[in-house]
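Run log, item B.
One chain of 1278 residues. Sequence copied directly from the ordering sheet:
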Amino acid sequence: MNEDRKVWHWAMVVVPVVAAAIAIYPPHRKLKAGIDLAGGTSMLFEIDTSGMSADEKDGLANNVMEVLKRRIDPNGQLNLVWRPVGQNRIEIQMPRPPREALLRREAFEAAIAQVRALNITRPEIEDWLHLPAEERTTAKDKLVHGVPERNAKLDALVTAYDAYGAAKDDVAAAQSSYESALQAVLSTSVDLSQLSFVLDLTEPERSKELERIRGAHTSEAYGTTLAATDAAHRQWAEHKGVLEDPSDLKRRIRGAGVLEFRILAERDSGTPTHTAHKQVRLKESIAKYTDQLQQRGPRRHGGDAYMWLPVADILDLTNADTHEVLERTKHALPGGLIVEKYAGQWFVLSHAEKEHGLTRDSAQKWKLVNAYRGMDPQTGRPTVNFQLDARGGRQFGKLTGDNLNRQLSILLDGVAQSTANIESMIRESGMIRSSKFTQEQVGEYVTTLRAGALPARLIETPLMERTVGPSLGEHNRAMGMRAAIVGLVAVMVAVAIYYYLLGMVANVALALNLLFTLAIMATMQATFTLPGIAGLVLGVAMAIDANVLIFERMREETDRGATLKRALRLGYDRALAPIVDSNLTTLLTCVVLGYLGTEEVKGFAMTLGFGLVTSMFTALFVTRVIFTALIGAGVLKQVRMMRLVKPLKVDWVGLRRVFWPASLASAVACVVFTGYVATTNKEALFDIELLGGTSVQIELKAGETVTDEQMRRLIASTSGEPKSAVQWLEEAADALAACTVSRGDKPSSFAVHSTTLTADQIESLCRSELETKLERGGFTRSGQTLKLEARAGGEGQLLLDEAGLKSALERAAANAREAALRLASAKVQTVEVSGGAEGGAMAFEVITVETRKDLVQAAILGAMSPEAAAASPLVPELNVERSVSFEVATDAERAPEGCWPIQAEDRYLADVLGDASLQFDIHPYKGGVAIVVDKLDPPLTAEAFERRIREIRLHPEFSQFEMRQYRAIGLTRVGEENKLPTFNKFAYVAVDENLPYYDDPTGSWDEQVAQTELTQVREALGTEKSVRKVNQFAPQVAARTQQQAIIAVIVSLAAIVAYIWIRFGNVQFGLAAIVALVFDVCIPLGLVTASHYVYRSFVGRALLLEDFKIDLSMIAAFLTIIGYSINDKIVVFDRIRENRGKLKSLNAAMLNAGINQTFPRTILTGMTTLIALSTMYLFGGTGIHGFAFAMLLGVVGGTYSSITIAVPLVHRPRVLHTIVYLLVAGSVFGIFWVMVSASSVGSTLLPVGGLVILAGLIWAIVMELRKGEHRMTMPGVA
């Protein structure tokens, strides 16, 4: 029987070990790296709640998040992290895919690029046709691209083009011949959208359609590239399991649950080969569209009146019984539906023009208000009912009223779900019917349709987007893992030396604890972050505590003369309660972190929590099984271990007269100092996550190479050479204050001159102080002189005079000095370059709490100017995009400001500008605007022009135009750059589909489309771009993060008090622990605050201090200090409870005995934890440096407060209650301070209130310390 039990015990050890090993193998696939280790992107999206009631807002973020999760990543394969933030925000994090996946994607993209290189585009053809006749022949080979059948078709096109240009009588026929010849040339190219569609099909349709594409393009060049593309896509798709670009995620979000309506095309009963419609132009050949579908897939072609829509369930849509029946009757379907099959997928023909649909791109924005279950009154079947808002109801009423007795299709994410015959006008409400609907399907549709409002509610441009490149991830991973390994080895060595054989067994338990923790993370698909590494190491160190408790109890029993087996049994039995209590209280903190923290903090909480759970199993069960086996085998014969501390007999309660005043003074000093800094200089205390700030992205010239640490010195160094951005800004502030001010040629004109600063730099430094007092465009730059044009106020009086200007310059100089101090604590990290001007260039992101982005940008550009780069080899040269001088062509009648409207009848650029030689096809831009820019210096390629437009639209003021379609057409070729033609004259065309010219020729079109596009062109060409991107973090993000931190702390403390109260049966223990915890947090908080002022000193450098800031990882450290410290106190309290037994009275002797008996364990646990933390502090890198610093202070403080504060307070209930009352009052006061400190009344009354509370606290403690000792009676603990 005993042997059977041993077998079971070993099975309970071995089976989890094997399961854990399987769970984490292979580790590089099973352990998910977070964005801080693997790199990736974190995006914060805001939900538009305008017009929503309080009930609709309630739980909105959670509801939208759950719908998006089910729609975008139903199986959790994409390794996305979702988090609702308040009621109207959602944070989505996506990690960088593994290197292997990136390589597979790059191989596929390279193969597609090879296909694209063989293709020929309409702009290429048109550019070629506009060349002089003698140049066409030499340039023709570039168009052929190794596709021989293109030769003859190009010759035919030239003939048709020349005939069209010379035509005088039958121009329409000549144009038709030209278009036909042009389409013949274009047909020699592979349609990439069709190829993409086909590659994503399943077999056998995929192979069949690929063979059809190869059959249409028989040249050897296409055969080779298509085969390579097929193979590369198979390799990529086989392992594709993650999103590979933030734009992929944004696209999925935009297309998640979008509800739309379209009128379907109908077959003409009189002429079945054509579509039916009252308008003659819409009666088209059905064969045209079926041929297009079979030849080029379902993509709509420009100018087509109809389009193909994929169908969710073709049998339900057509009411056909089987697919065989459908194939026989598809040309005579009820309602005249026109359906066709392509590549195994059924499609239905629909009207494509806007007036025949209610879509997300409708001119007037509308939204789905609600979706709910319903019942068909005719059949009793379940239905999906929907309700639109008033604007959508009006548009839907017009759509249905204009198309009575026609077929309406309801689309979800562009897929036709059902059709209905329009019997009457429908306004706000409607229903989706299907004979095959089940209640479950209806529920899914309702959930999905509720998400259909997302495009109207979720603002597609993220409020915040943070991208971390792979270099940062690899650096953090290397530093963090090195700290983890060194810390783990150091702890194990220390344990083995101190406890001998017992320590070796404990090390086995620690190794298994680590294995089990990683296995749980792999099984739960938990994200492994940098703070998670810290939590893992800290969890291992804290897991030592369980073994120390057992071993020290075994030592005590052995000292009393117990046998080895009895000592083993009693050691485990008596250590059980403190192990469980201490670990559960720490787990409470982990739970709070897991629910309320960001992903980085959650990674820490999960690894620490898992470590604590598994440590109880390994320490209480696994080690006991091993010890039992060793005793049975005769290997373990006695309890041998070192003795660090002999049994003590210290009167700790009596020493409170020494410790309490010192503790009070230090805690109050830290609180007052931190409060003062938090009030007067927040940037010295809080990091960008809590304050907001600015991030500036810079790109180096190709070939320039620096490390992130070198770049950090170039930005934030306060001394030495080369001159940093901080030093430049300090000198610039002095130079700005020394500028001379003079009047111009009229009273409103002024000039500011500097001997060292350029006019651009002067403007950047003083813009925020002056721009509200100047005319629009009131800055004029000339060399080192900035000219200003003052604005007149309401009564005609100038808002700026000479004295006011000098005062403004002094304020601007003071602002620059403040900015320099903040910039000194900036963070610098490498970022991934995508879409940079030059391939292979390095890029960095500078993140600072300074919110005046003009000053940050000026400092960086000043320190890394071309002159600075030329003077020092340590300063890299920035990739600066120079401004372009140009002129906008105008026409007094048609385009007085340079904005040429593109009319509905215009087909070519020649029709718009009146120049017959400009036969460039611009029909996709009908209703848009054309802008002609001439005399560009330097000339640009069309790609460079379009890139400038694309990048200017990333700026906040132009981000709303991101979805507009545009094109730059080179008109006058002057040279070549990187084998691409350069032009000094362009026509820029753009269109806003929601506001075409012919809908509003004189109203808002000019203001909202023409003028905004002209402004973008002027900004894109006329602005020198020295940085890639400048972002200012929204203040709302910082406010939300602060609320999150406060809630986390309050909930943690409340949970701990509640647990101790329940466990010990008296609130005194819990209150004493909380008071000590306040001390444990105050000391690290004060010293972290002080680091800002001493880190540059000799002492600061010797202690490896940095300018530590309070960020989310630091908050994790404070919460962990609470968990660790409560662990200490619970162990002491448990021993005191054990000593008291059933006695009702508790005296100082019992309290002292509890402290003295647990003192060795307290010191040993503290030492092992300090070993782990020291390795993280020394070797963990900047990512966890601040965390480790706070934790080192917290462990020392927690050990101290357990002995000198918590237990003596239990003996002095009146002091305890007084302190608790004052702490509660102080907490309420602190919250009140946060709320009203900005007001003048608050700034006067709050310091007074703080002094009153502080005086009360000191008075209470002094009065109690003067009283004699007295005994205290407490109820027994069951």
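Observations after the first pass:
- Confidence is low (pLDDT under 50) at residues 833-839, 1034-1038, 1235-1249, 1268-1278.
- The chain is about 55% helix and 15% strand.
Flagged for discussion on Thursday.
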